[in-house]
Structures are given as structure tokens and as C-alpha cells.
Design goal:
55% helix; 381 residues; alpha/beta; 17 helices; five-stranded mixed β-sheet
């Protein structure tokens, strides 16, 4: 909160009022933030906003046009400060222009270089005062913020949406179905997202997974709530088959399955501390493939020992299916080689040896298949 000046008196409630930028502070409970706590610095908040919310584009726009005071920031008076509930990205951009050393502190503390463009003198005056709309509580702002950022023009990523809905639900004044109606979202989607937030919070409280430990800079929260809606994951974590249809409750995963939760989250997100890459590279089809591995004893053993989802998933497939797929795949590759035969100039004799080996192997496969066909015919007589 460096450089914050407390206004002599807060602006009136439910009225658009111009105020000094110096009296505004960033919201440490902003749903966009992956890491949220009272001690998080302004530098850390702005760094997260820059990495995930196109703050660079906003900086360029303000430099070219000045700050366009079209939509008021939504603020709440807390502890003698005006906390910005809606408009943190705009406040972050304004502060980067107004505080020359802020970008340098972010580079030093967060290892992130933010390029702040030059702003003409005629535009700088637009950064001194901004319009705000003061609300009496966070509840008063939630319907508007939720609709705008969950289904409106300025959509948040899934994790921010889920945190927002979970905090609103935990306030205890509204049901999840009402939240879904107010923000124009499907009830089942909101419930699945909030349930996943509770699972993530349980993992954090038990010390088995921290979001900051993920390998990818982007937190793909949708991987988790999609997985938790599938039967194999529920079975692996000891969750009731209908658990996602119930109202969310804290610590949904049974205590004897917390280690399984650790495994799931590491397979989905990896671990920087353990130098372990995630096995989920894309939501489809990897979430489905991992689910099939979870219900296979052999597949689980392979995944735990090798860390390879492709090898583990292959071990779950019936031998007949693996053989037919391999045979069809091989035919395709041989035809590709035949079509490219003009690329062989006869100089690399080792390639001829490989071709002879392929021919011998193919002959062996064909001979054994013919034998099995004769045996099957005799058994059928």
C-alpha cells in the first residue's frame, strides 16, 4: 500500500464520484489472483495482473488516449481505505504510469519486466482523478461484477470465476442456484467449479498441493473441475458418485484418500519443487485417458513407475485392440515410406538393412496370423 493517501472523507454511497487515485488500493481478495493473502504486496498483485490479464495492452491504450473515465471503479471502504473491488487492472495501469519506481520494484521482487510506454503530458492529467461508485459491502457489488466477468464482455478465467462464486456462496446469504441465475450461468457449472475450489483448498490445508508449485505459468483450473466430474476420478478419490450435485462442503475428499489427491494434482499440474512435469498436456483427450488409467491396476503401476501417461494408457487397452491399432498404424507408415521412396538414392546401405528387417518381421506376423486363423477355423468345426 505504498504511497496511499487516505481520503478525508469517503465518497457517498451509490453515487458516481471523482476521487484522487492516491486514495485507492488494490483488492487483495481479487478473484483474479492465484495467490491471495493479507501480506501479498502490490508488486506481486500487479505482476499477476500483468501476466494473466493483458495489462500491457491497457498500458498502450492509456499512453495513446489517456485514461478514458467511462466506467467508474467500484470501491468499498475498508480499514480507512477505498479498496477497488472492480477495476484493479485499470488502477494497476494508472499506478505504473504515476509511480516511476513501481516497475523497477516489480522487476526486482517478482522477476518480471514491465515495459511502461511514454505518456504525453496532455494525457498525464487524466491519471490524477477517476470516477468511483462506492458500495456498502462486497455483497452489493457481486451481482454486477459476477455478470460482467463470468458471462459478460470482460470474462475472467475459470479459476477467478470459481473463487468469486465460492466466496459469494460462503457469505451465506445466497444459494448457488441464485448465484447462477444472477450471473447468467448454468447452475451445474457453478456447482462443479465451487466443488473444485473446496477440493483445492483441502489440498492446500493438508499440505499436499499448492497452486504456486504448478509447473505451467498458467493455472488451468478447468482441468480440475472437469476431472472431478468424471466417475474414475471420483472413485479414485473416494467421492460419492453424486457428490458434485450436492451443495459444496469443506474437505470433500476422505482423509484416507488425501494421498490420492496429491497424486491427482501432481499428474494434472506437475510440481516445480519435485521437478515433476504434468502428464496432462491438453484437457482433451488427456483427462479422459488419465481417468481410464486410474481404474486400471496395471495402468496405475506403470504411471507411478514411469510417469508416462501414454505408456500407462497403452497398458490399459485390450491386447486385441492394441494389436489391430498397431497393425493399421504400421500399414500407414509403410505406405508413407513407399510414397517417399524417391528420396532413397541407394547410398545409405543401412536403410536397406532396416527394410529387410521390416520385411522379415512382417512375414513372421503374417505367418503367425495365418496359423491362428486356421486354428480358429478348426475350433469352429
Amino acid at each position: 500500500m505504498t504511497g496511499v493517501v487516505v481520503p478525508a472523507s469517503p465518497p457517498p454511497l451509490a453515487t458516481v464520484t471523482p476521487v484522487s487515485v492516491e486514495g485507492l488500493v488494490l483488492d487483495r481478495l481479487n478473484p483474479r489472483l492465484v495467490t491471495v493473502n493479507d501480506d501479498v504486496s502490490d508488486e506481486a498483485i500487479i505482476a499477476q495482473l500483468y501476466r494473466s490479464e493483458d495489462l500491457g495492452e491497457l498500458l498502450q491504450s492509456i499512453a495513446a488516449n489517456g485514461y478514458l473515465d467511462i466506467e467508474p471503479l467500484i470501491v468499498l471502504k475498508e480499514h480507512e481505505h477505498l479498496v477497488v473491488l472492480e477495476g484493479n487492472r485499470r488502477l494497476a495501469a494508472i499506478r505504473l504510469f504515476r509511480e516511476p519506481q513501481l516497475a523497477a520494484r516489480i522487476a526486482e521482487r517478482e522477476r518480471l519486466r514491465i515495459s511502461v510506454p511514454e505518456i504525453p503530458a496532455e494525457h498525464r492529467a487524466t491519471l490524477d482523478r477517476v470516477s468511483v461508485y462506492r458500495v456498502d459491502s462486497r455483497d452489493d457489488a457481486r451481482s454486477f461484477i459476477g455478470f460482467k466477468h463470468i458471462n459478460g464482455a470482460a470474462k475472467w478465467e475459470s479459476y477467478a470465476k470459481a473463487k468469486f462464486a465460492a466466496d459469494w456462496y460462503r457469505a451465506g446469504k445466497i444459494s448457488l442456484s441464485d448465484i447462477a441465475n444472477r450471473i447468467g450461468d448454468k447452475h451445474d457449472t457453478v456447482k462443479r467449479m465451487v466443488n473444485a475450489i473446496y477440493v483445492l483448498e483441502q489440498a492446500h490445508s493438508r499440505g499436499v498441493f499448492y497452486v504456486d508449485d504448478r509447473v505451467s505459468p498458467r493455472f488451468n483450473f478447468s482441468h480440475l473441475y472437469t476431472a472431478l466430474s468424471r466417475a474414475p476420478y471420483m472413485q479414485f478419490l473416494g467421492l460419492d458418485a453424486a457428490w458434485s450435485r450436492y451443495d459444496p462442503t469443506p474437505d470433500p475428499v476422505p482423509e484416507d484418500k488425501v494421498d490420492c489427491l496429491r497424486e491427482i494434482l501432481r499428474w494434472i499440474y506437475g510440481s516445480k519443487e519435485e521437478t515433476r512435469d504434468p502428464v496432462i498436456l491438453s484437457q482433451n483427450p488427456d483427462i479422459k485417458r488419465l481417468g481410464e488409467v486410474l481404474i486400471s491396476a496395471e495402468g496405475l503401476n506403470v504411471l507411478r513407475s514411469t510417469g508416462s501417461l501414454s505408456d500407462a494408457h497403452a497398458s490399459t487397452q485390450p491386447a486385441e485392440r492394441k494389436f489391430s491399432e498397431a497393425l493399421i498404424r504400421t500399414r500407414h507408415e509403410i505406405r508413407e515410406a513407399s510414397n517417399s521412396l524417391r528420396g532413397f538414392d541407394g547410398r545409405d546401405v543401412s536403410l536397406l538393412g532396416i527394410a529387410e528387417d521390416i520385411c522379415e518381421t512382417a512375414q513372421t506376423i503374417q505367418d503367425r496370423m495365418k496359423k491362428k486363423v486356421r486354428e480358429a477355423a478348426m475350433d469352429g468345426e
